[in-house]
Amino acid sequence: MAKTTTMRLVELMVYKEDVHQVLKYLGKMGQFQFQQNFDESSSSEKLNPDLEIFTKLEQTRASLSIPDLDDYTEALDIPSPGDEDEALKIIADVEDLHDREMKAAEELKKVSSAVNEALAFSNLKVSYSELESLSFLTMRIGKIDPGSFDMLKSAIGSRAIVVQLGDDKSRILVACSKKARFAVDTELKNADFVEIQVPKDFKGIPEDALITLKKQKLQAEETLAEIQTERKNFAETHRDMLLHLLQVYSVDSQIYEIQNKLESTEFVYRINGWVPAYLTHDMGKDLDKLTEGRTGIREYLPEEVATVTAGVEQVPVQLKHGKVVSNFERMIFSYGSPLYGTVDPTPFVALFFTILFGIMFGDAGQGLVFLLVGILMCLKKIKFGGWEKFGPVFVCIGISSTIMGLLTGEFFASEEILAPFSRWVTGLFGTPRNQIIPMMPSSDPASIKRMFLFFGFTVGVGFIINSCGIIINIVNQFSLHHPGKAVFGKTGITGAVFFWYVIVFALRVAFFHHSPALYDWIVIGLSLFFTAFGEPFARIVEKESPALENGLFSGVISGIVEIIEVVSSYLSNTVSFLRVGAFALAHAVLGYIIAKMVGIAPGPAGVVISIIGNAIVIVLEGMIVAIQVIRLQYYEFFSKFFNETGREFKPFAFKYNAQKA
Known about the structure:
By secondary structure, the protein is α+β, with helices and mostly antiparallel strands. The chain is about 60% helix and about 10% strand. The two termini are about 40 Å apart.
């Protein structure tokens, strides 16, 4: 069985003039996890000049409306002296553009407001002082929110006249009797009315003044448009350079961030970190070449690291696989990291997930959809929310679903399209049938028998998965030098013997008419006893004392409870896989319903029903089946050997958006 990647602790002693290049190399390698517990407060006191430039470049990119990058698009590098000059020049030019654009926009706003004010009062031909001097009349001229105009008019009612000035409802003239002025002022205040101070001899806006103001507004609009065009042209001509600068300053700012946290003297930096053992030789050669032999390198085995042997630190765990299997790693780490030096469960997860999904989602047409989506995701033609990285997973479940669909004779919920293929295959071995494995139950006794056989098959798959989990745990416990736990306990050798013997015993009784013998009860009884009361025996084997940690009475009670736990858990772990058959049957029933609805509907309506029905099944049932498979993996498989979790290997690697996280 493959185990977790062998790791080494590497200590580097790097001169001050070399540390930047060394950190750049480690970040590009992406396989070095720093051992230090960095002091975050110390880094905040040190400068990171490139982070300041990166931040300004990011603001410049946003100001120019240039789309941001998702990741690096060029080889990872640090800024050159020419890059710094170019960055500062672009930042200054864009800041100048931005200032000019803001001033032009402000000027346009001011002129537009003047034009609107002039238009609002252009029809006021009587002197305002003459109107205001009327003994029976109170007048107010001012601004309100246009949305409040109708509400204000309704609230004032017949107590005053509200006149709209200009083309919109933002400027009004309110006239009322002297007696009603207090009530009207109250309503105006509620409407957030802002009074405009009008000269006493004001009679309106002369036509030539209006023309001048409109010309000023047009000129302000043209000035703003020219600056915006200039900004657009600047963005087009400087886009590639700006994105290049963002990438190099992103890299360098991350280097500074790490460098500021490292232990150092005036001349030397010390860098400790975990590296996969298969990389240490090449890494040493590369660093020697990079620093011309000035870097001191020491390599330690995990058992030579004091913090590891003392239990203070766990060796980080890396799982190394090919492109397909590696896509199932997140399923492992979402549950927990395996311990260092134990069996790598990822290949088992990849195989079991693919098989279980295919059994529960057997339709050749729908499986081909998953396969096509997976291929497009692998080719980066489909991108949504980062899920494109799981393209190989979609390819795997697409293949397994297609194969199961060929066996059950389903193609987009239809059992007729694949009937010729099924009849040809079954004809090679006897009587031709429309399905190689018919899933839909019927009143035919043979159909009921096939259904029970299929459920028995799914329980058999569960038996294999549970057994693999037990074997992995036994191997892990021996690897971790815990022979007592490997031999005794529910997931130890005694538990495996009990589980396997009971299954074989039940099959012999059910299918071979075996009569229980004395030796059967002896094997079952002894294996159950050492499984349920395994803890004291495990402590004896591993030389831990006392054997009965909480006394004899407590040990007996715990053993009795453990007997119930062992029997019930193994029973539930096995029966739980009946859901695989149940979901496969449910999928067949859904397909049957869709096929019947398509058959009833005339012409184009049937096609629409088929498309919608299959789409619903692919999306909704696909999600449900995936959740059920993950649940079976977590509770029935992982629970056998994930007794404690390790520490995931998270190496230092450059991330373009790291500064924004």
